[in-house]
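Bench notes, bay 3.
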Amino acid sequence: MPLLIVICGIALLLLLILVFKLNTFVAFIIVALSVALTVGMTIEEAVASIQKGIGSTMGIIVPVLGFGAMLGKLVSESGAAQRITTRFTGNLNSKYIQTSLMLAGFIVGIALFYEVGFFIMIPLVFTIAASTGLPLIYVGLPMIASLSVTHGYLPPHPAPTALTAMFNADLGLTLLYGLTIAIPAILVSGPLLARFLSRVNAKPLAEFVNYKILTEEEMPGFWTSFFSALLPVILITLSTVAGFIFPEENIIRRILGFVGNPVVAMLLSVLSAIYFLGVARGKKMTDIMKSLSHSISTVAMIMLMIAGAGSLKQILVDGGVSNYIGGLMSHSMLSPLILGWLIATILRICIGSATVSGLTAAGIVLPLVTGTNVSPELMVLAVGSGSLMCSHVNDTGFWLFKEYFSLSVKETLKTWTIMETSIGLSGLIGVMILSLIVK
C-alpha cells in the first residue's frame, strides 16, 4: 500500500505540473498533503511535518543559493565571465578551440546558473564558429556540456546543494568527488561527442539578440575574474583536503575548516567580489547593492521549489513511507547508487526539469542513504547524473538549444538529447568507479 501511495503521489505531481501547468511549489505542497492524509496523518501532523521538511531542507540552502546568486550577478555584470571566456578563446587555432571553450564553460558554469552562462557565452561561440569556419556544433557542444555538468553535479548550484542537504552529505566531499567525475564527463560529452555530431547543420539564431559585449577597458583583469569566480570552490576544496592531511586539533585545519564552511566560503567570495569586481573598479556601493538585491529574485522560485520538495520528503519520512520503500529496495540486487540514478532518470523523462527530478527522487531514495552504508556524497552525484538523462521536448533546455542553434526537433534529439544522456551515463560510470575506492 505505501508503494502505491508513492506512485499515485508522483502521478499527481506529474498531472499538476505537466497537464494543469501548476506552479511547482504549489504542486509539491498539494501532493505532500495528499500523501500525508492518505497514510493516516492528521492535518495538524501533516502541516507540522511540512514545516519541519521546509526548515531542515532550507537551512543551508538559503545562504548558499542566495550568496551564489549574488556572486553570479557580480561575475556576470562586471564582465568577469566575458574576460574568462575571451582569454580562453583568444587563440583561434582550431586545435584548441574546443578545449578553450570547455574550460571557459566549466569556470563560468561554476559561478553562474546554466541559463545565465549560456546567454553570456553563446555570442562568443557564434563569433568563433564564424571566424574559424568550423561547424557550430563542433565549437559549441563542449561549452554546453561544461555548463550542463556543473549545473547537475556541483554545488553551489541549486539541485546538488539541495541534495547534499537532504542526504546530510558533506558538501566539500561532494564538490571534490563531483569535480573528479565532471572532468571525464565533459571530455566525453563535449569534445569527443562533438566530433561525431559536427555534421548536423546548426546555424546561429537569425533573430539573435545582440547582448552587450564589454570593451577591453570595461572588463576586470583575468586573474581577478578567475579567482572571483572560483573562490568558493578553492576555499571549500582546501578545507576538505585539510581534513585529510592535518589532525583534528591542527590550527591550519581549523582555520581552513572555518573559511571552507560552505556558508562562510560563499560569504567571503561575495565580499571579495564586491570589492575587486565592484568598488575597486569605481562602482558605487549603492549600485552594487541594488544589483545584488535584484539577483535574489532570480532564485526565489527555485528556493520555493526546493522547499516544496523538502516538505514531500519529510512527509514520506514521518508517514513511514520511506522506511517501507527502503525495506523493499534493500532486497534489490541493484546497487543503491544505480537505483537512485534510475529513479531520477525515470522522473527526468516524465517531468523534464532536472532540478525537480533530482529533488523528487531524493525523497524516494532517502532511506537507501540512511539505512545502508552507501556514501551520501556519491548518492548526490548519482541522483544528479540521473536527473540530466534523456532530456527531450518537456525540458526548457531542449528548446533553448534548439532555437539558438536553429535546429529541427529531430536534429535537437540527435545532438542535445544525446549529449545530456552521455553526461548522465558518464556520471553514473564515474560514481560507480568512485564507489569502489570510497568506503
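Next record in the batch:
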Amino acid sequence: MIETQDQITEFIQKCKTNALSVTPQRLAIYKALLIDKSHPNPECVYNSIKPDFPTISLATVYKTLETFEKNHIISVVTPLHETVRYDAEIEHHHHVVCIKCKKVMDIKDPELEKIKIPDIVKVGNQVLDYNIQFNVICDSCRAN
C-alpha cells in the first residue's frame, strides 16, 4: 500500500506540474489504473468507478485518460486490441501479450535494456523510446 500511496503522491505532483486540477474523478480514474493490473480499456475504468461517481460519463473517462497520457502521467498500451488500453506504470518496461485472451502483463528485465537499436532505425530518425512486446498463448488459454 505504501507503493500505491507514493504513486498517488507522484500523480498529484505531476498533475500540479502540468496545471491539471486533482479532482476526485481524476484521482478515482488514476487509482482504478493502479488497482487493475490488466491494463484496462476506458470502458473497464468507467465501470470500476461508476458506482462511486454515478454522474461521470464514459466520454469524461476517455478524455481524462487521453489528458493523462498526453501529460506523461500514464502510458498507452494497444497491442492486438480493438480499443486502447492504459497502464499506470510509466517507467520503461515491456509487455507479454496473450494473442487469445488479450491479457497484458508487464515485464521488466535488465537484459532487454541491453538490446542494440538497429542502425537502420536510427538513420534519419530520432529514437525517443522503444518497447518490446512478446506475443504468446498464455498457460490459461493453452489449457483450454
